[in-house]
Description:
The protein is α+β, with helices and mostly antiparallel strands.
Amino acid sequence: MHVRSQPIVRLHLWLETEKGVFFGLGRLQLLKDIQAGQSLKGAAEHLGMSYRAAWGKIKKTEEVMGVRLIEKRRGNRQGYQLTEAGQLLAASFEQWFQDVEAYALKRARALFPCEPKAFKDPPAT
């Protein structure tokens, strides 16, 4: 029996200025990893980047937004935590991405003669 593969809707959304990207899925994941208790170094390694690259991305976003996204944890000289602005940015971007993804999936299912699935949906059995 021939099993057809099910198409997957994948999106890459980001925010940028004339100087380039200042927030997208990679920076969201950095913030989420920090929020989950990983160090900035651990979050960077999880994403396959250097500490310096991760720090630079966070700093660029902070410059564009005009707010700090991370701050040193109290009582822990090496760790960071998200500021209130960092938490809000992460939550807002994640909600925006989910909204756009849901709309894209709905439209793909309406327009194409197949049954696309979301990127994170479990495989059909």
